[in-house]
Amino acid sequence: MDRQPWEVYITFPWFTDCNFSLGGAAFVWQSSLLLKVMNQSISPKVLLGCCIMAYVSGGAISMVLSVYLPAIVTDIMGQNNAHTMSQAGPWLNAGYLAGMTVGGLGLGFLSDHLGRVKVLCISLLLCGISTLCAAAVSDWVWLVWLRVFAGVGVSGILITCAVLVSESWPLKNRAVVQGILGVAFPVGIVLSGGLNVFTDQWRNAFQIGWAPILLAPILYFLIVEPANHRVLRIPQNTFRAVFLLENRNKLWRGAAIYGADLVGLWAIFSWMPTWVDSMLEGSAIAGQMRGVTMMILGLGGMIGTGLSGVLVNQLGLRRTLLSNFAVTLVLCLFIFLGNQTFTYFLLAQTVLLSLFFGVSQGALTVFVTELFPKEIRASGTGFCFNTGRVFTTSAVFFVGSLVEVLGGYSNSMLLFSSAFLIAGIILYRSPELTNFSMSKI
Questions:
Q1: For residues 85 and 68, what is the distance between their CA atoms, to the nearest angstrom?
Q2: Is 44-235+245-440 assigned to CATH 3.40.50.620?
Q3: Among residues 320, 326, 331, which one has the least CA distance to residue 363?
Q4: What is the tens place of the pLDDT at every residue in 188-232?
Q5: Would you list the domain boundaries of the chain?
């Protein structure tokens, strides 16, 4: 039997003839004992559901190391004190972000060449396999390298899913849908924090790597490459087009805005559970509170990201983002200067801070993905999302390295929170933000 490029045949000897459909994709059970997947685009809602599952798995893998960092350092290095943490901790946290930087730049470009769906599935397999391998290592240097590969995979998930959803939904609904998609990543962060409630063994927690591995083949057979990408594919000059004069200023401004936001956000997300653990050192609830802190950061980010689309539609990008950065900076000052010992009031303050983190991420995703034409959208989005991670990686590294110099995790995180002020200044002077019309969304 001749097989078309868009057909998939799988042998199931126990089935007879039948037909059914799922989200616009037609499935035919034939008496020849083969399953045929017809070439029909799935509905935007089903596509959104697939991307949400990918985002959740990426979110869980992204923060599972930060939740278990003190336990990992103790297990691999034999002790957990300021010296050992400053030696291994910064590399472990920064390695993941370095991978995200490389993956975002490379995989965004490849998705414009090879297709969004292929790169999405490759990214899922990469982050899943590297996470499972990490559970077996006994040397922290190998763990750093595996986290680099996990970062590459998660970055590919973020870029390809954001572009797939952007290209599949109508303009008037795109901001809200991007906000819904953004909620999924914090859901994964909440799950990573929840793992600490069920097991205090970090190697068991890293079995979460099975999730993206199992998801990859399902999405590969279910999602059809968007028709507009097949029509608009220009593989030979995509990279050159990204740096044309009309795109160059957008590129660097988008990277600076998003990167400054990530510096402050990741500095806090990566090290706040360790800060909480240091304030509860020796306490029976130290490990549990690490997990609870990460769950709060993820849950608040999830709600904030979900609200971001509504806020952008009601207030506009300018008001939403500028007010968000101002309040975030004030909250950081209050939290890191006002808490020298652990209290449950600190957890309440963390909830509020994480809400504003989520709003900024959702709104900035809308802004960056709409900066570029479809032909170079994945490459341009990937560049903006990840060039800033070069600085973010350095920031996350130096938060841990400067703890002893600055006198504690709180002072170190407060220093890097000043990045929100920088992001606000660039946003205020951004002509793309000033002239951004909600009719484009």
A1: 12
A2: no
A3: 320
A4: 888 888 888 788 889 999 999 999 999 999 888 888 776 555 444
A5: 1-40, 44-235+245-440
